[in-house]
Amino acid sequence: MPSDLEERLARIERLLQEALTRLARLEEATLGASEEARLALELAMAFARPIQEALEASRRVLEALSRLGGDEPDGLTRAIVEALAAKGPMSLRGLEREVRRLRGSASRAAIRARVERLREAGVVEVERRGRRMVIRLAV
């Protein structure tokens, strides 16, 4: 993956963290402020959190895909990695639902085969819990 993109993501994360820190300080400073000011700060904090989570998921996707080598991953592989980065560990059935939501269609057999290849490449870890399989990013 291009290091320029990783550097830009890191810079955005730093800037967002600075903004969150400043918002937290403003929140502390406005304890006696009007209800409108407090609500504005709460809304600003609430909207900033999803952005930070998306940036963290993007970093996990880039790191996971970099383990695959130089080839651009196909759509199914990318959807699996993106789903796991965004939602965290999940069962094969949960992963199947997320991949279908992201790309529209994918068979369970194709997803299972791709997960096995990703496991062999060190991108995902698979834990068996009885008959259930829990899949998570290894990064």
Question: What features would you describe in this structure?
Answer:
This protein is mostly helical. It folds into 2 domains: 3-66; 75-137, Winged helix-like DNA-binding domain superfamily/Winged helix DNA-binding domain (Arc Repressor Mutant, subunit A, Orthogonal Bundle), CATH 1.10.10. The protein contains 5 helices and 3 strands, in the order αααβααββ. It has helices at residues 3-29, 35-66, 75-87, 92-103, 108-120; strands spanning 90-91, 124-129, 132-137. It has a 3-stranded antiparallel sheet with strand order 1-3-2. A hairpin with a 2-residue loop joins strand 2 and strand 3 (132-137). Helix 2 packs across helix 3 (75-87) and helix 3 packs across helix 4 (92-103). It is elongated, with a radius of gyration of 19 Å.
Write a brief structural summary:
With 139 residues, the chain is mostly helical. The protein has helices spanning 3-29, 35-66, 75-87, 92-103, 108-120, and strands spanning 90-91, 124-129, 132-137.
